[in-house]
UniProtKB/TrEMBL annotation:
<protein>
    <recommendedName>
        <fullName>Protoporphyrinogen IX dehydrogenase [quinone]</fullName>
        <ecNumber>1.3.5.3</ecNumber>
    </recommendedName>
</protein>
<dbReference type="Pfam" id="PF12724">
    <property type="entry name" value="Flavodoxin_5"/>
</dbReference>
<dbReference type="InterPro" id="IPR029039">
    <property type="entry name" value="Flavoprotein-like_sf"/>
</dbReference>
<keyword id="KW-0547">Nucleotide-binding</keyword>
<dbReference type="InterPro" id="IPR044264">
    <property type="entry name" value="HemG"/>
</dbReference>
<keyword id="KW-0627">Porphyrin biosynthesis</keyword>
<keyword id="KW-0288">FMN</keyword>
<keyword id="KW-0285">Flavoprotein</keyword>
<dbReference type="GO" id="GO:0004729">
    <property type="term" value="F:oxygen-dependent protoporphyrinogen oxidase activity"/>
</dbReference>
<dbReference type="InterPro" id="IPR052200">
    <property type="entry name" value="Protoporphyrinogen_IX_DH"/>
</dbReference>
<dbReference type="GO" id="GO:0006782">
    <property type="term" value="P:protoporphyrinogen IX biosynthetic process"/>
</dbReference>
<keyword id="KW-1003">Cell membrane</keyword>
<dbReference type="GO" id="GO:0010181">
    <property type="term" value="F:FMN binding"/>
</dbReference>
<dbReference type="GO" id="GO:0070819">
    <property type="term" value="F:menaquinone-dependent protoporphyrinogen oxidase activity"/>
</dbReference>
<dbReference type="GO" id="GO:0005886">
    <property type="term" value="C:plasma membrane"/>
</dbReference>
<feature type="domain" description="Flavodoxin">
    <location>
        <begin position="5"/>
        <end position="152"/>
    </location>
</feature>
<dbReference type="InterPro" id="IPR026816">
    <property type="entry name" value="Flavodoxin_dom"/>
</dbReference>
Length: 174
C-alpha cells in the first residue's frame, strides 16, 4: 500500500485532531504515519508518496522548528507531492479562513522557502480549562480584543470539518 507522512507542529492538539481526520479520509488508499515534526530528525523520503505538514499558530507565530525543518528538507519537499496547512483561531472568522485571506498564510509564504502547491488554513479550538494560567489569561485577552469567547470554563471547537474533508480529497488527488 502507498504511504503518506503526516507531520505536525502542534501545541494543544487540534492540529493533530485535524490530521487524524485527514488520515481517516485517506484510509484504504494510503497507510499514514502521523509524526511530531519536532521529534523526526531524519525522513526517509523514498518511503512516502505524499507528505502533509500541519502546523499551529501560537501567539501569532509558527514554531521556528517548522522553518528549520523546511530549510533542512527543502529539496525533498519540493520533489515530493507535499501540502501544508496551518491552524489558528483567527480562521474562525469569514474571510480569514482561506490561504488568501489568512495573515498567517501570507506570513508563511513570505518566510518559507518552500511554497507547496496545496495550502489551506483551518480554525482551531479553545480549550480554556486545559490551559495553564498564563496561557488562559493571554488567550482571553486576545479573544476579547477580537470578539471571541472569553469564558474560562468553556471549550469551543471552531474547526470546519467540511473544509477539512474537502482538503483531504484535494490532498489525495495530488
Amino acid at each position: 500500500m502507498k504511504k503518506a507522512l503526516l507531520l505536525h507542529s502542534s501545541r494543544e492538539g487540534q492540529t493533530v485532531k485535524i490530521l487524524r481526520s485527514i488520515e481517516s479520509e485517506l484510509a484504504g488508499n494510503y497507510e499514514c504515519e502521523l509524526v511530531d515534526l519536532h521529534d523526526m530528525p531524519e525522513v526517509n523520503w523514498a518511503e512516502y508518496e505524499k507528505v502533509l505538514i500541519g502546523a499551529s499558530i501560537r501567539y501569532g507565530h509558527l514554531n521556528k522548528k517548522l522553518y528549520r525543518f523546511i530549510e533542512n528538507n527543502l529539496s525533498a519537499l519540493n520533489e515530493t507531492k507535499a501540502a501544508f496547512f496551518c491552524v489558528n483561531l483567527t480562521a474562525r472568522k469569514p474571510g480569514k479562513d482561506t490561504p488568501e485571506g489568512s495573515v498567517y498564510m501570507k506570513k508563511f509564504r513570505k518566510l518559507s522557502p518552500w511554497q507547496p502547491e496545496l495550502q489551506d488554513v483551518f480554525a482551531g479550538a479553545l480549550y480554556y480549562p486545559r490551559y495553564k494560567l498564563f496561557d488562559r489569561v493571554m488567550i482571553q485577552f486576545i479573544m476579547k480584543m477580537t470578539g471571541g469567547e472569553t469564558d474560562p470554563t468553556k471549550e469551543v471547537e471552531y474547526t470546519n470539518w467540511d473544509r477539512v474533508k474537502d482538503f483531504s480529497e484535494r490532498f489525495r488527488s495530488l
